[in-house]
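Regression test attached.
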Amino acid sequence: MTEWTGRTTSWVRPPIAIVTALAAQMRSEGADLIDLGQAILGLPPPRAAMDGVRAFLDEPGPHPYSPDPGLPELRDAIAQMLRSHKHIAHATDGGVMVTCGANQAFANALLTVTQPGDEIITFDPGYFDHGYTIRMAGCTEVPVPLAIEGNRYAFDLDAVVAAMTNKTRAVVLVSPGNPTGAVAPRAFVEQLCDVCRTRGVWLLSDETYDFLTFDPAVHTSPAAVADDDRIVVIGTFSKIFGMAGWRIGYFHGSARLMEEAFKVQDALVVCAPVASQRAVLSALSEMDAYLLETRAELRARRDALLDSLDGWSAARPTIPAGATFLLARLTDNVDDVAFCQRILRDTGVVTVPGSAFGKQGRGTVRLSFGNQPVERIREAGARLQGR
Amino acid sequence: MTEWTGRTTSWVRPPIAIVTALAAQMRSEGADLIDLGQAILGLPPPRAAMDGVRAFLDEPGPHPYSPDPGLPELRDAIAQMLRSHKHIAHATDGGVMVTCGANQAFANALLTVTQPGDEIITFDPGYFDHGYTIRMAGCTEVPVPLAIEGNRYAFDLDAVVAAMTNKTRAVVLVSPGNPTGAVAPRAFVEQLCDVCRTRGVWLLSDETYDFLTFDPAVHTSPAAVADDDRIVVIGTFSKIFGMAGWRIGYFHGSARLMEEAFKVQDALVVCAPVASQRAVLSALSEMDAYLLETRAELRARRDALLDSLDGWSAARPTIPAGATFLLARLTDNVDDVAFCQRILRDTGVVTVPGSAFGKQGRGTVRLSFGNQPVERIREAGARLQGR
């Protein structure tokens, strides 16, 4: 290979691999690690999901593609859920595109509404994969810092407005946020919708952790406060149903968006996997009961982590209003990658360096509580505090 | 919506929807249609595939992502298959990226090796989704006409060389070809590899229909004749295993390619669906027996179609050496979209207008034989000939 020809060399891979490699090495040497790294929900999916797949397997005949936008019954069920659970009154099955997870939904929506050269506003610290996708589309990411109010991260409308130029094509809102767990309050969402509508800017709302909020926080979808053609709702069943491995997400938008996005969908994946679509269709019938249990367990895990980190001298946890992790701010001026390596080596607790999530993530560390039972989380806290 | 902002408006959707809509209307009115439209294999997947999924469903615990490049066992099994069945001696598990179908494999590989502004050579008539993806990546498609030799389509090396400029970044070879079923002979593949290596051009080889060839035709992968860093092999289990709905494909390339493509993979889909990966892993154990039966059945279907179209005055079938369809060339100078509509209305046979596949497809019609049993194919031929 003489010279590399592609667009990806400038995409710096987040410094997670360094920690992951060390963890793998320690594990192979028999270390008892506690993984607070991966942001997954470590609970089995709803039983109905698996039953739905079993029923599908028992049906005779060939296994063709579904229609590109998804199985009609699933699009309908998702539209119903958008109306009943996310309060998006204008949601319709025709506005739903079923995708291979939220990342593919974001990629499809972004590629559909942008031209190369557009500027895309994101929040920092934020979800690094969106930065990749923005570059992939030939666009420029314009990260806007989150504010810090007391021990919580918060969205800052003035910063968004200040970052807007005549090249701004979209604002990407991730709420609850990754890695902060910050949940955009309804008033902020309303103001952001106003700003975007006034400026003719798309609002791509990634709602991956929508139902994983901690009372009194409530997730508000932009589409629930404004019926605007340029609002796109992106969701997934990876986190709320513990079904990351099944790769089913979706996005919802206008009829015109669907018409254009169809082309991108066909080129990228044709359709989402059919067995996975059937799994989600069945799971939606058990949604309320499953979420009730999941949220209670998740809250217990969050509280256990916050409780066990109380008084930690190395870092001060911020309080997440949603999602499955929290960001802790290092008290000393140390490199967060080195810090994560050190605590992994010293205590066996796997974390993610905050600089993986942008400039504003430097000097922080992300601890995930979604993937470990309460007792392991307590032990992680104890280990980190040297108890 | 005041004005549309995105990149897709100039992507003309192939005129398939016109025929599909008419077919749906006729079906709703009770018409007995014979669908020679969709290019799928209308046979159930290997039994082992479904058993693999059942075993997966019975395993306890959460359902997280697989590693981005795929389950290690599946990557290993695919690498073995590349060595044993596709004669790619240098294939390794580390060179395999498992994807959500061949389209996502192509999108990933193309996005990884190109920059916006690059020129990509394709063959015409050819697979329209690749054209979409090339535009999505900000590149320019340079279609090169296939030659016609007697009653077969053929690849023309001189035309490829003539189309190359200093902006050419890749040649996309689809063999067996869609919609022609043309299979690139070994000598052509060797020469194409030489040309690409000499010019420093990537060779993206889409081998979707690799094992679906008709004796004496044999598929030759470029990676089987040259161990070159700029050859990327793209494959899928959608067609050879009748598993389109499961969405599992792959691509194989150099370690450097994998390193860069990892970023695109994470941003696009994170990983392929795990249950689908397990299905394919199990299916690979039955590959030889399944393919033996499938190829025999497919050949019978092809021969039935060719036989039943013998003497058709409206169009002259070309003979496919592989894949699941053939292209027939209209004898009169009529519009192929209008032709497909007319035969659908008059005979109830669903076909695809050749202009969907590029300029060189004009005045042709694609008839798929993979999705109908022999007796229905014979009936389709009889209807088309007005018998």
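Expected vs. actual: identical. Chain B touches chain A through 77 residues (CB under 8 Å).
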